[in-house]
């Protein structure tokens, strides 16, 4: 884009792109990329050397000293679990590992194994000591997976860097987790497409026009495995231990804080449209776009003026229950 510095890197398991405008744009990009790499090293669920892995390996044994960022993410994870009635839970790690291992072997987990792991999933169990800067998982086998909020938290940190350097306009995209700072340099709002879950080649079903907002989408349509002719997607319901199959193909949340929008989008996708409205009412100032299996696009009132339908098959309707 003319007048913008750009960057594309692989980090946090996805493609991260930046478009940054301003006198200190190159410095901002460099600092953000450095911060992202550091966060990946600290929060990775898969790297045994990460702070998160050290916390998980010490479950049921001892508290672990962690970074202030990680403490904040654990606290946010606990809050989101309470406010979404368990539809989002960062202690879903044991279930994530079990499903990944089984699906890689072409099978699904035994129900007895799922029932055995479910008692380990409870974000309220996490003990946080801010004074000592430690965290503790009290049950052997417990494990935190920050995949549901890590990209959002990283986007929030990028925004802080942009603002510290007086960047007037920028957009960062962490694999579909988008944060737009201000408007475009020409005064127009940013256009963010919401992917059509059943279309090919990434065609959007609706486009949102935003400025100074984060846009985060969650759904089970992107990553799945087929076993005995049935598709099992990656989006687990922490309350049941199984993939969440609802009437929603995807849930998108728009708000000022990307980490909250990230976790809330996951929760809405798990809950389905009937209960998504109630969950959203817990978070004032956050809006949503819900795409149902019959191509109905449910939009909260605050987005009706900025949501532009693209797919001719889609029907746009307001979520009248909210606000």
> Gap between N and C termini, in Å?
37 Å
Query: How many DSSP E strands?
Result: 17
Mean pLDDT: 91
Spell out the helices and strands N to C: EEHHEHHHEEHEEEEEEEEHHEEEE
What is the makeup of the main sheet?
A: 9 strands, mixed
Strand order of the largest sheet: 1-2-6-7-10-13-14-15-17
Topology at a glance:
Elements: E1 5-11, E2 14-21, H1 25-43, H2 51-57, E3 64-65, H3 68-83, H4 93-104, H5 111-117, E4 127-129, E5 134-136, H6 150-164, E6 169-174, E7 177-181, E8 190-195, E9 204-210, E10 213-218, E11 224-227, E12 230-233, E13 248-255, H7 258-271, H8 273-280, E14 287-292, E15 296-299, E16 307-309, E17 315-318
Parallel strand pairs: 15-17
Antiparallel strand pairs: 1-2, 2-6, 3-5, 4-5, 6-7, 7-10, 8-9, 9-16, 10-13, 11-12, 13-14, 14-15
Helix pairs in contact: 1-6, 6-7, 7-8
Structure description:
The protein is an alpha+beta fold and about 325 residues long. It has 3 domains: about 1-40 and about 155-185, no CATH class; about 50-135, ApbE-like superfamily (T-fold, Orthogonal Bundle); about 190-323, ApbE-like domains (T-fold, Roll). It has helices at about 25-45, 50-55, 70-85, 95-105, 110-115, 150-165, 260-270, 275-280, and strands at about 5-10, 15-20, 65, 125-130, 135, 170-175, 175-180, 190-195, 205-210, 215-220, 225, 230-235, 250-255, 285-290, 295-300, 305-310, 315-320. The strands form 4 sheets. It has a 9-stranded mixed sheet. The chain has a 3-stranded antiparallel sheet with strand order 3-5-4, with helices on one face. It has a 3-stranded antiparallel sheet with strand order 8-9-16, with no helix packed on it. Strand 6 (about 170-175) and strand 7 form a beta hairpin. The longest helix has 19 residues, at about 25-45. The chain is globular. The mean pLDDT is about 90.
């Amino acid at each position: 884009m003319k007048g913008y510095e750009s960057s594309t890197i692989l980090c946090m398991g996805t493609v991260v792109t930046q478009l940054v405008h301003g006198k200190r744009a190159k410095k901002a990009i460099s600092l953000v990329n450095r911060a992202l790499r550091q966060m990946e090293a600290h929060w990775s669920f898969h790297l045994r050397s990460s702070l998160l892995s050290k916390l998980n390996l010490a479950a049921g044994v001892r508290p672990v000293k962690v970074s202030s960022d990680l403490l904040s993410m654990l606290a946010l994870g606990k809050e989101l679990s309470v406010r979404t009635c368990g539809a989002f839970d960062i202690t879903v790690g044991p279930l994530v590992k079990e499903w990944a291992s089984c699906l890689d072997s072409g099978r699904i987990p035994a129900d007895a194994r799922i029932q055995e792991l479910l008692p380990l999933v409870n974000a309220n169990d996490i003990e946080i000591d801010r004074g000592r800067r430690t965290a503790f998982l009290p049950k052997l086998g417990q494990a935190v997976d920050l995949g549901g909020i890590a990209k959002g938290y990283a986007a929030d940190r990028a925004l802080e860097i942009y603002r510290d350097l007086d960047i007037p306009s920028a957009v960062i995209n962490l694999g579909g987790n988008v944060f737009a700072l201000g408007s475009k340099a020409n005064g127009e709002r940013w256009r963010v497409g919401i992917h059509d879950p059943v279309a090919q080649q990434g065609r959007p079903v609706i486009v949102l026009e935003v400025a100074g907002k984060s846009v985060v989408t969650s759904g089970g349509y992107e990553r799945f495995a087929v076993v005995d002719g049935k598709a099992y997607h990656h989006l687990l319901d922490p309350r049941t231990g199984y993939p969440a199959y609802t009437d929603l193909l995807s849930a998108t949340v728009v708000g000022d804080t990307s980490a909250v929008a990230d976790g809330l989008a996951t929760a809405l996708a798990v809950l389905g449209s009937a209960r998504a409205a109630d969950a959203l009412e817990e978070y004032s100032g956050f809006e949503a776009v819900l795409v149902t299996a019959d191509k109905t696009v449910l939009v909260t009132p605050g987005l009706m003026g900025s949501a532009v339908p693209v797919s001719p098959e889609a029907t746009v309707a307001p979520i009248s229950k909210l606000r």
